[in-house]
Amino acid sequence: MFYIRNHFPYPVVDIRTWELSIEGCVNRRIKFQYHDLLQMPQVSLPVTLECVGNKRALFHPKVRGEQWELGAISHAVWTGVRLMDLLYSAGIQMHAREVIFEGMDKGGRTDRPGVFSYARSLPLDQSLNPHTLVALYMYGKPLPFRHGYPARLIVPGWFGMASVKWLHRLVVTEEPFQGPFQVVDYVYNRNPLVPSESPEPVTTIRLDSTIARPTDQEALAKGDHWVVGTAISGEDPVVLVEISTDNGTTWLPVSWLDPQEPYSWRRWCWKWTVTSSGTYDVKVRATDAAGHIQPERADWNEKGYGYNAIQHIRVYVD
Amino acid sequence: MFYIRNHFPYPVVDIRTWELSIEGCVNRRIKFQYHDLLQMPQVSLPVTLECVGNKRALFHPKVRGEQWELGAISHAVWTGVRLMDLLYSAGIQMHAREVIFEGMDKGGRTDRPGVFSYARSLPLDQSLNPHTLVALYMYGKPLPFRHGYPARLIVPGWFGMASVKWLHRLVVTEEPFQGPFQVVDYVYNRNPLVPSESPEPVTTIRLDSTIARPTDQEALAKGDHWVVGTAISGEDPVVLVEISTDNGTTWLPVSWLDPQEPYSWRRWCWKWTVTSSGTYDVKVRATDAAGHIQPERADWNEKGYGYNAIQHIRVYVD
């Protein structure tokens, strides 16, 4: 059930010849074969991945792209080697600023001629973060092919585009990467008519919360119902989730099903005792440790990224 | 991938004790065991089933219920015994008017107390139609449990609610059936404020056509693209499907991928050569043999049934 979003057709992977190479501003180019990585120290980390296009279908005016509703977010425990261990073994040079991560998937784009690999860069500090992994396992099993076998970058707390699948090449650079998936896609462009000189890049997961059940337009009987859902933030942890059943007039805190974990969504539940029939406008909002709260309206942008407005569903009690 | 829509939890089925009984206005009550049915003459028929709530999410104002988009329609070849053979072996009495079909699935409703089986009735003439089957096989294999094993009624040309799953009881009656899935659900109620005395019941599949690819808000490159989709009608066969890429100003006919078959959708394709970039409003409309054409606007009703307005998607060519 883990969501999948690719830009290109699935690549052909031959594990016998697959290598992960590190080049660029390093003291020595290195190539790791699959069994090299399997023999290195492994780290396991629960990380929730969310596509930055999740909830795109909720933007008004409508925005082009995959019309995701609530489903482009999933959770797994990832196991692999620390990216920093790989980079240090290559030796990072003084003037290095970024690391480019290239996947094996490639193809054309609608907006320009040529063939492109799916490639993204990360600042050096995030690349050296001990929690940034080159994952080889998902929930204890070798990565499923569709999720990036044999190796997938996992950048905890960042939107999913950073976690490059079918990883095969790392390039340490001193110049900001200018690939189309870095500077054309995955930037917040709030005014299509006036393209920004230096648009804000998409980085960490925005504070958001979602009701999984009941669903919008669902009919319920009077009595007790469990409202359940998730909340997440890529920066300051979620400390409070509140539910309103009167369209935002009054709010009540939920109970947690998950502990507060960095990089993971927190599932929550709330017991709703409905005694009178009618139409209910149910809302949910999350607050993080820095006191940020979800916005009433989404931050509209040309590509429909980062929708995190307070969710509103309508349910009917007969 | 065949869509599933149930009203109640899955029933418990023990094939060793399962029976299909026929009672009511018949000369002799009969019970068929599974192997009895297997030994009777089998008929195979390709039938497309569509939930009458398909496309409900497209209604404005929004309507309560499952927020189906385009996916609540699927096609299969069904094999089983003719319902008429079963009914004739029981002997239908002169005054019989309807047959009630009861599934094994049961449970509560939000709008009234009590436990109800999922049950629907059909007029006698439709019950005696040689194409109305008690299906035992789906694509040549015993019915999957989720699709009604061991036996499912298949009513060709009717919306899916008529094709009762986990069928175990037939009652031939002289009075119109008043079960909640006959008179409360599955009626077109166009004015919630003024409930009709005798609302129009949901019966056959409405004339409709759907674009499967490209998807709404998709971006394409200049060049050739195949637009593909389906068209269906439960009554007069679909004879024409037309595409417009200029928001309905001009229309061009598609090519057929399927022959004209009663009870089956017709898949079609249309080669679109796009030479100039821009935003395209693409529409599709079907015409049936009686000259009916899909409406511009959907026939709004309280439960969101039978949406068949001309589909409109927007695609971007870079």
**CATH architectural category of the largest domain in chain A:** Alpha-Beta Complex
Work out the helicity level of chain A. under 10%
Shape of chain A: globular
Average pLDDT of chain A works out at 96
User: Helical stretch count of chain A?
Assistant: 4
Main sheet summary of chain A: 5 strands, mixed
Biggest chain pair interface: A-B, 21 and 21 residues
Order of helices and strands of chain A: EEHEEHEEHEEEEHEEEEEEEEEEE
Kindly report how far apart the N and C termini of chain A lie. Answer: 33 Å
Q: How large is the share of residues in beta strands of chain A?
A: 35-45%
Q: Uncertain regions of chain A: pLDDT < 50 for 5+ in a row?
A: none
**What would CATH call the class of the largest domain in chain A?**
Alpha Beta
Structural class of chain A: mainly beta
Gyration radius of chain A, in Å: 21 Å
Give the name of the CATH superfamily of the largest domain in chain A.
Oxidoreductase, molybdopterin-binding domain
Kindly identify the CATH topology of the largest domain in chain A.
Sulfite Oxidase, Chain A, domain 2
Q: What oligomeric state do the depicted chains represent?
A: homodimer
**Strand order, largest beta sheet of chain A:** 2-1-10-5-6
- Work out the count of structural domains of chain A: 2
Keywords (chains A, B): Metal-binding, Molybdenum, Oxidoreductase
Domain Moybdenum cofactor oxidoreductase dimerisation (chains A, B): 204-315
InterPro entries (chains A, B): Ig_E-set (IPR014756), MoCF_OxRdtse_dimer (IPR005066), Mopterin_OxRdtase_euk (IPR008335), OxRdtase_Mopterin-bd_dom (IPR000572), OxRdtase_Mopterin-bd_sf (IPR036374)
Cofactor (chains A, B): Mo-molybdopterin
